Amino acid sequence: MNINFGKNGIPILNDLALDENIPLPQQIELLKEDMLQVEFPLNYVLDVSWRPSFQVDGKFHIVIIKDSNWDEPLFLATANKICELIDKIHLAIESIP
User: Fold this and answer.
1) Could you check whether the bond before residue 23 is cis, i.e. omega within 30 degrees of 0?
2) Which of 11, 64, 72, 97 is most buried per CB count within 10 Å?
């Protein structure tokens, strides 16, 4: 997957190797907790995970956190499809001031 992180985002973990043309159940081995983490200036982080890991009935979780405060995300969304995931990632990035 090719995603523009904009706003000077630097991927520190990028295991988003999903293929939009293959149904998610056929890519179950790629659906895990730690999929993507991108650092932005001023201590913002975008995090993408699939929960529960390796379970077909899970979903993507997309969060923006600041200053490592995982208890109070500034942005929180979920997605069930890859196209929806990409849209939510862009919305998350737009939410960073």
Assistant:
1) no
2) 64
Q: What is the pLDDT of residues 54-83, one digit of tens each?
A: 999 999 999 999 999 999 999 999 999 999
The partner residues of 49 in beta bridges, in order of sequence, read 61
Beta bridge partners of 78: 61
- Burial of residue 44 (number of CB atoms within 10 Å: 0-12, 13-18, 19+): buried
Tell the residue number behind the tokens 């043309």, with chain if given: 21
Lowest mean pLDDT among 4-8, 24-28, 30-34: 4-8
Give the number of residues written for the chain: 97
- First-to-last CA distance in the chain? 25
Average pLDDT over residues 2-26: 91
d(CA 39, CA 46): 7
